[in-house]
Design brief:
Elements lengths: L1 H23 L9 H4 L1 H9 L4 H5 L3 H16 L11 E2 L5 E3 L7 H6 L17 H15 L10 H22 L2 H20 L6 H13 L4 E4 L2 E4 L5 E6 L4 E8 L6 E8 L5 E8 L14 E3 L12 E4 L2 E2 L5 E2 L2 E8 L3 E6 L4 E6 L10 E5 L2 E5 L15 E4 L5 E6 L5 E6 L5
Parallel strand pairs: 4-8
Antiparallel strand pairs: 1-3, 2-5, 3-4, 5-6, 6-7, 7-14, 8-13, 9-15, 10-11, 10-14, 12-13, 15-16, 16-17, 17-20, 18-19, 19-20
Helix pairs in contact: 1-5, 7-8, 8-9, 8-10, 9-10
C-alpha cells in the first residue's frame, strides 16, 4: 500500500512539473489551454500519434521519454532476481585511458603500482541475505558521496564493501540502482581519498584497491546482451560464446555529459547485440536512497532535461527502458556508434526525505559530482533560490560562484578536489 501511495504522489508531482514544462515550450503555446487542463486529453495526445493535434506535437517525444524513465525508476521498487546471473567483463580485458577524474585505474596505480583487480562475482545462494543487508544496513547509512559518516578508516572500508556488494547484487538483478550508488561512491569519497595530497596510508590503499576493482564492473554480458554500467574512456574485447566484438567508449565524464560508444565486429558482416546503456538516476531526477535524499522541486531550480540518444548521428526514436537502462536491440554494422547526451546542469538535492524536505539542507550537484565551497571548512547554507554563476578552473573544471549574505563571492568546486 505504501509503495502504491508513493507512486501516485510521485507521478502527481511529476505531472505538475511536466505541465509547467510544457507550458514553457514554444510548440505548445499555440494550442488552447483547455487541451492541457484535461490529463486524459494530454495523455491521449502523447499515446495517439495519428491524432491531428499529435502530429504537430513533435517535441513531446522527449517529454514522453522522460515520463518513461521516471516511471521506470519509481515502479522498480523491488529488485527481481534473474534466472541466470550476468557476468562482468574482466578488468584485465579493459584498457582505460584519460586524465584527472576519468581514469579510475590510472589514479589508483599512482598510489600503488602493484594493485590487481579482484573479480566481483554474483552473490549466488546468499542473494536474499545480501539484498536484505543492502536495504537494512547499506542504504540507511549511505551518504551523498559515500557509504557512511564514520571515521576515515571505517568509511573507506565500508565504501570498498559497498562497491563489492553493489556489483554482486547487480549481476543477480541487472538493476541500475546498484550502479547509481556505486558511481556516487567511486567519484565521491573513494576518488577524493585517492587523489588527496596526504601520504600513502591504509585508507588511501583501500580506496585505490576499490577503484581498481571497479574497472571490472564497467561492462557486463549475458548471451547477446551487453551492459554499459560506468562511463569512462575505455576499450575492451568482449569475447563469449555469443559475442566477439570490440567496444570503445569515449567520454569526458564525470565533467562532461557526452558519451560515445563504438561497436566493432571481428568478423565480416553484421552482428546482433542488445545494448543496455545505464541512465544515471541523477539524469532523470532520482537519487538513491530515495527515502533519504530528494531532488529539489523549487521553481528556481534548473530544470532537468531528458538524456538524448543518437545512433550513427540520428536521434533514437525508441524509448525502451529496462531496470534503468536504455536498451537498443538491433543488428549492427562494424563501426556503428551510439552517442548519449546526459544533462549536465547544476541541481540541488535535499536531505530528510518525506516530511522534512522543505526545511532540509540543500547540496549542489552537477552530474554525479557534489560541489562544496572551495575554501575547505567554510560553512555556507545553500538554497535552491540562490543565484549560480558558472565559471571554470585553469584546467577546465567547471566551478560555480555564489554570493553569500554579505555579498562575498564563494566558489564551489567538486568535492573530490577540496581537502
Amino acid at each position: 500500500m505504501g509503495n502504491s501511495f508513493d507512486l501516485i504522489v510521485s507521478l502527481a508531482r511529476f505531472g505538475n512539473d511536466l505541465f509547467r514544462e510544457v507550458q514553457r515550450d514554444e510548440v505548445f503555446q499555440r494550442f488552447p489551454p483547455r487541451l492541457f487542463l484535461c490529463p486524459a486529453s494530454f495523455m491521449f495526445c502523447i499515446l495517439n500519434p495519428s491524432h491531428s493535434i499529435s502530429k504537430k506535437m513533435i517535441s513531446l517525444k522527449r517529454y514522453t521519454l522522460l515520463i518513461i524513465l521516471l516511471s521506470a525508476c519509481i515502479l522498480s521498487t523491488a529488485q527481481k532476481r534473474l534466472k541466470t546471473p550476468l557476468a562482468f567483463v574482466p578488468a584485465d580485458s579493459v584498457v582505460l585511458w584519460g586524465e584527472s577524474y576519468n581514469d579510475l585505474r590510472g589514479m589508483a596505480l599512482r598510489v600503488n603500482k602493484t594493485l590487481q583487480a579482484r573479480a566481483v562475482k554474483p552473490v549466488g545462494k546468499a542473494y536474499k541475505k545480501a539484498l536484505k543487508a543492502w536495504k537494512e544496513e547499506t542504504l540507511p547509512t549511505a551518504t551523498l558521496t559515500g557509504a557512511c559518516e564514520k571515521g576515515l578508516s571505517e568509511r573507506m572500508l565500508r565504501n570498498a564493501l559497498l562497491i563489492e556488494q553493489a556489483g554482486g547484487l547487480f549481476l543477480e538483478s541487472a538493476d541500475s540502482r546498484f550502479m547509481d550508488l556505486s558511481e556516487r561512491v567511486l567519484w565521491g569519497d573513494l576518488m577524493r581519498e585517492v587523489i588527496s595530497p596526504s601520504p600513502v596510508s591504509f585508507e588511501k590503499h583501500t580506496a585505490s584497491q576499490a577503484l581498481v576493482d571497479a574497472t571490472g564492473m564497467i561492462y557486463a554480458t549475458s548471451g547477446e546482451d551487453l551492459w554499459v554500467n560506468l562511463f569512462t574512456n575505455s576499450t575492451t574485447h568482449v569475447l563469449s560464446d555469443e559475442l566477439n566484438i570490440i567496444v570503445d567508449q569515449m567520454t569526458g565524464m564525470p565533467l562532461e555529459g557526452r558519451v560515445k560508444i563504438r561497436l566493432t565486429g571481428y568478423s565480416r558482416g553484421r552482428f546482433h547485440v542488445r545494448l543496455h546503456v545505464r541512465i544515471p538516476g541523477w539524469a532523470v531526477g532520482h537519487f538513491e536512497p530515495k527515502e533519504k535524499y530528494v531532488f529539489s522541486n523549487d521553481a528556481a531550480s534548473p530544470r532537468t532535461k531528458t538524456p538524448t540518444f543518437y545512433i550513427n548521428g540520428r536521434e533514437s526514436l525508441t524509448s525502451v527502458v529496462e531496470n534503468g537502462y536504455f536498451v537498443i536491440d538491433r543488428t549492427w554494422n562494424s563501426g556503428d556508434e551510439v552517442m548519449v547526451e546526459f544533462p549536465m546542469l547544476p541541481y540541488f538535492v535535499k536531505e530528510g526525505g518525506k516530511g522534512s524536505a522543505s526545511v532540509a539542507a540543500c547540496h549542489l550537484f552537477r552530474g554525479v559530482l557534489e560541489y562544496v565551497p572551495q575554501q575547505s571548512g567554510k560553512d555556507f547554507r545553500l538554497s535552491p533560490n540562490v543565484g549560480l554563476k558558472e565559471t571554470e578552473s585553469e584546467d577546465g573544471v567547471p566551478l560555480y560562484e555564489i554570493k553569500d549574505t554579505k555579498e562575498n563571492v564563494v566558489t564551489f568546486a567538486p568535492y573530490i578536489s577540496v581537502w
